Amino acid sequence: MEVQIAEKSYQATLVRDDPYNDLALLKISGNFQFQALAFSDQRSAQMGEEIFTIGFPNPVMQGLNAKLTKGEVSSLTGYRDDLRLYQISVPIQPGNSGGPLVDMEGNVKGIIVAVLDAKVAFKITGEVPQNVNYAIKSTYALALLDTVPELSMRLPLPNKEGTPFDKVVNFAKESTVMVITY
Questions:
Q1: Which of 20, 88, 118, 181 is 20 to 30 Å from 161 at the Cα level?
Q2: From CA 45, how far away is CA 56, in angstroms rounded?
């Protein structure tokens, strides 16, 4: 595994994983500047809440620069009412998985995990779904981080309202990295 920060790659090692929730905590070593995003202090997002993600979708076709997409929380549950997930209207592509789902203040609300499979949905319903995507709720990511107390104690405090959106986006962009697995 490697993590790409700016123009440099760093070897990554697995610290903890949660295969059931499709989450992993990686550690990298090196000389770099990197700040973590804050997690929301609210236990849940709200239906209709505006959110965005920063990620690296389809890097072979779309390039290596980070991409922003915006949308809303469509449901407080996921596929077949899975309580661990949010359904979101944020357009995502392969390569967005593992990226942060962020509120307008720059706080993590979840982690991007899945797209509703269009082929399967078409077989069942005869319709092609649009913007049906899923993020694991931040409480599950925080539970994983809590298994490493020395790390969870260093998480930044949540951001409050009032920061201009362009500054929120820039900070989120600087705090999001591309993970490459082989």
A1: 88
A2: 24
Range of the domain at 86: 36-176
Distance CA 29, CA 13 (A): 9
Helix, strand, coil percentages, rounded to 5, for the chain:
20, 35, 45
Cα gap 69→163, rounded to integer Å: 19
Domain-embedded: residue 147: yes
Domain assignment present for 119: yes
Cβ contact 21:136 at 8 Å? yes
Q: Is residue 8 part of a domain?
A: no
CA torsion angle for 7, 142, 102, 67 (degrees, to 10)? 30
- Letter for the amino acid at 41? D
pLDDT 10s digits, 128-181: 888 899 999 999 999 999 999 888 888 888 888 888 999 999 999 999 999 988
Structure tokens at 138: 């931040």
User: Which residues lie closer than 8 Å to 44 by C-beta, 6 or more apart?
Assistant: 76, 137
Q: What is the distance between the alpha carbons of residues 86 and 109, in angstroms, rounded to a whole number?
A: 9
